[in-house]
Design a protein that fits this description.
Elements lengths: L1 E3 H6 L1 H9 L4 E5 L2 E6 L33 H4 L1
Parallel strand pairs: 1-2
Antiparallel strand pairs: 2-3
């Protein structure tokens, strides 16, 4: 569906309802398309699963040892 800018400002609620039902609305200004109203699909998210990153992360044994580069600041 295409409507001009003046019509769209008067019928915004109806245009949004049409977009919510899957219709693509193109708004024209000076007979040129400038805006498109479309339905935004919700993102599909998978539920988090405990332990799904097992083996991907590790911490070295010397993780909490002082760094040689900062030794002078630690004294």
């Amino acid at each position: 569906m295409q409507v001009n800018l003046t019509e769209s400002s008067q019928d915004l609620v109806q245009l949004v309802e049409a977009a919510l039902h899957g219709e693509e609305i193109v708004i024209l200004k000076d007979d040129k398309p400038v805006v498109k109203l479309i339905l935004i699909e919700p993102a599909q998210r998978r539920p988090a699963k405990a332990g799904s990153a097992k083996g991907l992360v590790w911490v070295s044994d010397d993780f909490d040892e002082p760094l040689e580069d900062f030794k002078e600041y630690m004294e």
